């Protein structure tokens, strides 16, 4: 039997049937350095509360699936060393063996579904890595979107990924990819890319209706909402391209592979941009949290 440990506020929100937004924990343990990781995680939770919803940060701690972390739990996770990064393949093993693991987008979606939460905010999703034609490195996040009914709000996908191939896999898997408020698919640190998103929506209520329609038609899976970074926080694609190329070159030269690739690239880009990438990352996660809260409130309104 799965024991889910809810935080006090998530427990109360579930009892009241009010809006809840799931948050992942890999971004805390592998995506940002301490202490900014804990500060940002707490800030993002507060943004969701300020928008009228309840945050549920998800992680496995000593084998227990936590949906919503108390402040001291968030602190200890943010400082813990050698926390595993758990995705669909490793989450059950992590729980069965009583270990601690930070959840990726895929694992967070699985936990959200188990907890009855249908909206989730993050920074960027995993995708198809550059060179995937030889490495076969394609994130399990993409297949999760095809099978687990959770709407995921992200700022598009990072330019460390092969974005055209990422969009192709999502299309093949039947995942709706919806840009919010613009035609182009946003590129994480930059609000625009030269790729058009397959779908565009301009309101949280349309996004909520589309997810509900998908489920009503018996189609499994969620939706990817690509929410552009606020203009004032973006970094131009031309500035980032050489930085990404350098980080990718170092990863290849050092033989970094598998699940270590994304954290390695993020860390190197942080260093090479002297922290600017992190400032942008924080702005876009907060922006995604606010939109996710609006979608979650619309879902509650439509479902009753
Ligand atoms: N992309 C980011 N920041 C992140 C991640 C992805 O811009 O922190 C994390 C997310 O948790 C995502 C995971 O689900 O990396 C994808 O890892 P992989 O490519 O190994 O599936
Ligand atoms: Mn991978």
UniProtKB/TrEMBL annotation:
The keyword Manganese applies. Substrate binds at residues 85, 105, 139-141. Its cofactor is Mn(2+). Transmembrane segments: none annotated. Its EC number is 4.2.1.70. Keywords: Glycosidase, Hydrolase, Lyase, Manganese, Metal-binding. It catalyses: D-ribose 5-phosphate + uracil = psi-UMP + H2O. GO terms for molecular function: hydrolase activity, acting on glycosyl bonds. Gene3D superfamilies: Indigoidine synthase domain. It comes from the Bacteria. Mn(2+) binds at residue 137. The active site is at 24 (proton donor), 158 (nucleophile). The keyword Cell inner membrane does not apply. Binds 1 Mn(2+) ion per subunit. Homotrimer. Belongs to the pseudouridine-5'-phosphate glycosidase family. Catalyzes the reversible cleavage of pseudouridine 5'-phosphate (PsiMP) to ribose 5-phosphate and uracil. Functions biologically in the cleavage direction, as part of a pseudouridine degradation pathway. This is Pseudouridine-5'-phosphate glycosidase. It comes from Pseudophaeobacter arcticus. The gene is psuG.
